[in-house]
């Protein structure tokens, strides 16, 4: 048998050192600073000759514990935790990129990430372009001499498209590029991009890592030397995760495996139900045989995740009637909660994305994204069914 503990065990047993009170559950270290014994300790600590917490903008015992857990779950060497997923995305980009660089990203990315690519990075003379998520064979032809990294989300938000991580990593290696993956939809329980060659993995911890819709958080993990640069940038700019959020999130990670198993079991049943519903045009879920990248999803994901995309018949009107008749599920823009959430990406999370970009990645007016929760699956199906029957 291997010496390494299983995922669930590491999630529970990776803990900050016990204090003098011998507590069983790790306490909350709500402190902005830490004290030193004398001038020499203070000097040596700031000179990094001594490893210890100095100030919570740099590190904190609760945040360290959260990072250690995510590193073990992802098979990563090191990490840094942020106040939100977008703080993780932005700080990673800001660290890696210089003026004159180019980023090649998959075409279907989270709306705020698209906003960074189109609105903010260009103002620092950083060029961004997209490869079509369904035409990975074009990736190599889009690489430029100044391309720094390939950016991928898989599964994507909100299209639930799947990208072949092994293939992307082989392309990156061949062209000496970094591969940066947003693994938020999969969670480290379902998919480990580093195993397939990714250099950095980003998560919005706000989603399934918290799993209960309470706090915001983000994390980037991966190669030690890259994380060191991200740490140095973040130490100066201050996007750090709060101790309180780290404490909540670290406790949430203890139950990630059991929660995600159940989310996925519910989601697969609901995806199959939707696929056979007369008021539905199409359904996309990674573990449905009809998903265009089913084989890749099966290869790199343990289960299909909790997000389903589908289109209600009847366009905008059909969609509106569907949303207006939902009773149990929540109309919200978050995802990865115990509560099932239905979202209309075209008017919410992706409202600021240009019409042609939305069309290219399948965000139609009738497209719905469901984040399947942990209510009894029969009750979720009952609610979706009655709302769909009001559509069109
Ligand atoms: C794929 C993906 N990446 C990043 C983010 C940003 O995370 P946060 O809302 O924690 O900033 C989200 C949020 O929905 C997301 O879905």
Task: Write the SSE topology.
Blueprint: H1 7-13, H2 39-46, H3 61-74, E1 78-82, H4 85-96, E2 102-106, H5 111-120, E3 127-131, H6 139-142, E4 147-153, H7 165-175, E5 178-182, H8 187-190, E6 200-204, E7 218-222, H9 224-237, H10 243-253, H11 256-275, E8 280-284, H12 294-300, E9 307-312, H13 315-325, E10 330-331, E11 341-343, H14 355-360, E12 367-371, H15 377-390
Parallel strand pairs: 2-3, 2-4, 4-5, 5-6, 10-11
Antiparallel strand pairs: 1-7, 6-7, 8-9, 9-12, 11-12
Helix pairs in contact: 3-10, 4-9, 13-15
Pyridoxal-5'-phosphate binds next to helix 4.
InterPro entries: Cys/Met-Metab_PyrdxlP-dep_enz, PyrdxlP-dep_Trfase, PyrdxlP-dep_Trfase_major, PyrdxlP-dep_Trfase_small
Protein name: Aminotransferase class I/II-fold pyridoxal phosphate-dependent enzyme
Family: Belongs to the trans-sulfuration enzymes family.
Q: How would you concisely characterize the structure shown here?
A:
This protein is of the alpha/beta class and 392 residues long. It is built from 15 helices and twelve strands. It has helices at residues 7-13, 39-46, 61-74, 85-96, 111-120, 139-142, 165-175, 187-190, 224-237, 243-253, 256-275, 294-300, 315-325, 355-360, 377-390; strands spanning 78-82, 102-106, 127-131, 147-153, 178-182, 200-204, 218-222, 280-284, 307-312, 330-331, 341-343, 367-371.
């Amino acid at each position: 048998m291997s010496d390494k503990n299983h995922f669930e065990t590491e999630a529970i047993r990776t803990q900050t050192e016990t204090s003098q009170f011998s507590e069983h559950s790790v306490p909350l270290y709500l402190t902005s600073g830490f004290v030193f014994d004398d001038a020499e300790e203070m000097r040596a600590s700031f000179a990094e000759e001594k490893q210890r917490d100095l100030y919570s903008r740099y590190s904190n015992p609760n945040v360290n514990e959260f990072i250690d857990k995510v590193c073990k779950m992802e098979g990563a060497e090191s990490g840094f935790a942020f106040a939100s997923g977008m703080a993780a995305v932005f700080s990673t980009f800001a660290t890696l990129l210089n003026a004159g660089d180019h980023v090649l990203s998959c075409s279907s990315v989270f709306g705020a990430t698209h906003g960074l690519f189109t609105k903010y990075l260009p103002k620092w003379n950083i060029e961004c372009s997209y490869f079509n998520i369904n035409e990975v064979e074009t990736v190599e032809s889009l690489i430029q001499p100044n391309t720094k990294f390939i950016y991928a989300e898989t599964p994507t938000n909100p299209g639930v498209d799947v990208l072949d991580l092994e293939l992307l990593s082989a392309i990156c290696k061949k062209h000496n590029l970094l591969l940066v993956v947003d693994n938020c939809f999969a969670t480290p329980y379902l998919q480990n991009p580093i195993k397939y060659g990714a250099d950095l993995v980003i998560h919005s911890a706000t989603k399934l890592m918290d799993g209960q819709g309470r706090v915001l958080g983000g994390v980037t993990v991966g190669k030690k030397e890259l994380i060191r640069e991200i740490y140095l940038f973040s130490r100066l700019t201050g996007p750090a995760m709060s101790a309180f959020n780290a404490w909540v999130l670290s406790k949430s990670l203890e139950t990630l495996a059991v929660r995600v198993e159940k989310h996925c079991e519910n989601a697969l049943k609901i995806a199959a139900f939707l696929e056979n519903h007369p008021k539905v045009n199409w359904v996309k879920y990674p573990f449905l045989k009809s998903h265009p990248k089913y084989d890749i999803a099966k290869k790199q994901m343990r289960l299909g995740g909790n997000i389903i995309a589908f289109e209600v018949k009847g366009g905008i009107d059909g969609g509106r009637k569907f949303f207006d008749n939902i009773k149990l599920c929540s109309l919200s823009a978050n995802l990865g909660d115990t509560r099932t959430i239905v979202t209309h990406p075209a008017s919410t999370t992706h409202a600021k994305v240009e019409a042609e970009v939305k069309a290219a990645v399948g965000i139609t007016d009738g497209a719905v994204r469901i984040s399947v929760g942990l209510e009894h699956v029969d009750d979720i199906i009952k609610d979706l069914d009655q709302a769909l029957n009001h559509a069109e």
